Amino acid sequence: MFQLPLPVRDAATDAGGDALGNLPEWNLNDLYTGEDAPELTRDLDWLEGECASFAADYEGKLADLDAAGLLACVQRNEKISEIAGRIMSFAGLRYYQHTTDAGRAKFLSDCQEKITNFTTPLVFFTLELNRIEDATLDTHLASNAELGRYASVFRRIRAMKPHQLSDELEKFLHDMGVVGDAWEKLFDETIAGLEFTVDGETRGIEGTLNLLTEQDRTQREAASHELARVFGENIKVFARVHNTQSKEKEVVDRWRNMPSAQSGRHLSNDVEPEVVEALREAVVAAYPKLSHRYYELKRKWLGLDRMQVWDRNAPLPMEDSRVIGWDEAEETVMSAYTGFDPRMGDIAAPFFSKGWIDAAVKPGKAPGAFAHPTVTTVHPYIMLNYLGKPRDVMTLAHELGHGVHQVLAAGQGEMLSSTPLTLAETASVFGEMLTFRKMLDATTDPKARKVLLAGKVEDMINTVIRQIAFYDFECKLHAARRQGELTPDDINALWMSVQSESLGPAFDFMDGYETFWAYIPHFVHSPFYVYAYAFGDGLVNALYSVYAEGKEGFEDLYFNMLKAGGSMHHSDLLKPFGLDASDPAFWDKGLSMISGFIDELEAMEG
């Protein structure tokens, strides 16, 4: 999430040649100009000294501070977070550009260890905050408006109060964090270093996964079998990573007296477990009318008796397979953003012109896509692996939405700008929907409209159905690990237990598909992250319906929502729109949008 591109002919060149155009690369100089930048040395030195001074000034004294003193303490802590975040953003972004480069990996590891060591004395901060009496803290917040801004931060910190350990144990767990990071890096480096050979050509994982969306079915099948072969050869490493990570989590959760493996994620997401369960139940109940129904339609379109896993993301037979160049992708997304509100276009424009996007597929580059907010005094950076597919345009719209959200929320400062994961997908999914609707409204040809609608339905199924299935897999994985070590076959079986249920009866599953859990980074980096995608999609579908109904002043309400960052609970953010995520009907409203698109596709068959 956190040199220049290598002069190597890569998958992006082979996939689209010059048709992709001039793909942008990151310019990280707004963070630091290099590993040896004097500003980086200065900030590391400052951080080491300030962390020690902060501990000397405040440890054991938080409960005795008045409101002004507590505000000064919080603001100093916030400055430490900003400088540490700036350093780690620079180290992390350089690493993700080229994860197999030993120098970059070492630099990231060294920075992590230094910052962990520097910040260990600060563990007392949240522990002592939680020891302040409720009445005392409430009085402080009420008497000082600037301190009162941080009320939501205090509320989230104090939600961990029942799970807080002794100061000594909390410092120990803080120090041990670098061990967990090492397992994550092993996963990243293993994934980035995998090589797959299809039709005599060797590719990395991103280029190979991309083949699953090719028009040529034999190529999709070959890529699927090659993915299964390579995953199978490395499955012991992936199983070891998952066993270790989930066991570590179980130990920490047990010591913290967490009621479930998911509880920590719900707390960090600032969402009630019953709201997540309502979402999960609504989605699982909708499998038959959404994914099962859609894939049966797709089976007919593809002229197949049975769907195979390599057909899941296949383009439709009538789909235009042309490569979409970068300039066209930029124009499509920017016109949708500006069409919604010119202010959104103004915020998005610098991403394209100032080196805030890294788009090309390159050897060793991390797979997937993300928007990393860095710190509130700089700006976000977006990573893509752009190959010119229609879905790549939607990915650009998605990540740019994150970027716009992060820019708008930056005014809240370090401690208040970051949204819980459940709300972090709001602007990204909304940006996708704006782009999709603009493209759909401009399409009059029935075949092209069918392709667009089908593509959107597939994206929504991947965002909602697949992610809830992933969530169920993780719930089963962590529950099973609590009973003992899991073999690769054990994990494979858990994976397959959620596949047929979520995808439906149209599918057969090839030998080897049981290993496809191995490459999904969220399971390693952010356990139980995945339901946030479904949460965000459902939230945005409900939000977009309010926009489509013409609610007066929607744009201003929407910008206010994004500017709030993490300063408000989801219930308060949704209230101006007349929405309530705790109401089961809220999720049905979002899911009905997907069902409505499938209705339209079925009507086209008539």
Please state the structural category.
Answer: mainly alpha
Classify the fold: give the CATH topology of the domain at 264-320 and 419-606: Neurolysin, domain 3
Q: Give the fraction of residues assigned to helices.
A: 55-70%
Strand order of the largest sheet: 4-6-5
User: What is the level 1 CATH name of the domain at 264-320 and 419-606?
Assistant: Mainly Alpha
Keywords:
606 residues; mainly alpha; Neurolysin, domain 3; disordered N terminus
Detailed description of the structure:
- A three-stranded mixed β-sheet has the order 4-6-5, with helices on both faces. Strands 1-2 form a two-stranded antiparallel sheet.
- Strand 5 (370-372) and strand 6 (381-383) form a beta hairpin.
- The radius of gyration is 24 Å and the shape is globular.
- Among the domains are: 12-181, Oligopeptidase f, N-terminal domain (Butyryl-CoA Dehydrogenase, subunit A, domain 3); 264-320 and 419-606, Neurolysin, domain 3, CATH 1.10.1370.20.
- Helices cover 65% and strands 3% of the residues.
- By secondary structure, it is an all-alpha fold.
- It contains 28 helices and seven strands.
- The chain starts with 10 loop residues before the first helix and ends with a helix.
- Mean pLDDT is 91; it is low at 1-17.
